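Mods, move this if it's the wrong board.
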Amino acid sequence: MSAIKETHFNLPGQSKFYKGKVRDVYTIENNFLVMVVTDRISAFDVVLPEPIPFKGQVLNQIAAKFLAATQDIVPNWVLDVPDPNVTIGKICDPFKVEMVIRGYLAGHAWREYQSGKRSVCGVSLPEGLKENDKLPVPIITPTTKASVGHDEDISREEILSRNIVSEEDYIQLEKYTRALFQRGTEMAADQGLILVDTKYEFGKADSKIHLIDEIHTPDSSRYFYKEGYEERQKNNEQQKQLSKEFVRKWLIDNGFQGKEDQLIPEMTPEFVKSISDRYIELYEQITGDKFIKHDHSNALKRVENNIIEAINRLS
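Not the wrong board. Structure tokens:
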């Protein structure tokens, strides 16, 4: 299976280009952004060597659905979705924090808890919890948004004392984060899923806070299957989940956590296909829609043509 690993477009009015871990972002005449969601996959802040077919399409289309479904809560950056792998939107000045919210003790928070810590990002956790337990109330555990290297946990108090975000804006970010998580939880429940944890990114345009980037995708969120959740917890069994966590666990099991001198294990074609299948499964589960695989045989040309048409419409 072919995949979109990277793009090298020269678009009309292009003034900047930024290559992120997963996204290729083009600035058009300092007026709007073109975000191409590639099939690259990252874990532990490292881009893995093999792209995952259809992953970019899955992420972009899930994000588009949830961004459209939450416009009544907070304005967002989207202007157009001209291609399965592309979103075009407003340029926003991003806040230097990511708003992580957790309804269950899983992933990074569980690893911290398991190591003996009873506080994550300044938020206290009760004794006696086990992996994947539901938390008494959802907790917000922000991280710094690192331009290079690893994002780091940070507390609300540190964000305010270091003036990373003003208190007025931060209070609003927390309100938006809780409201978005509630909406995502309800939409997931309608599809037989539990939204375990997720993260949101915000920026400002025209002095107003906007939701930016992606939301409620398997790259930014973790989902459990609702059916059998209680029974699996009671029996101390692993939860059946749809997220990128299974990739992280595979890497950990094979001796890689993004640390110096660690080698990325070989990603066989079978393993790559299994990741692709998992992403498609999540798309169908969370949206309730059948996933339509767009032809990848000449994907780069398709993407470029659709972007140029959209630029002409928006300019």
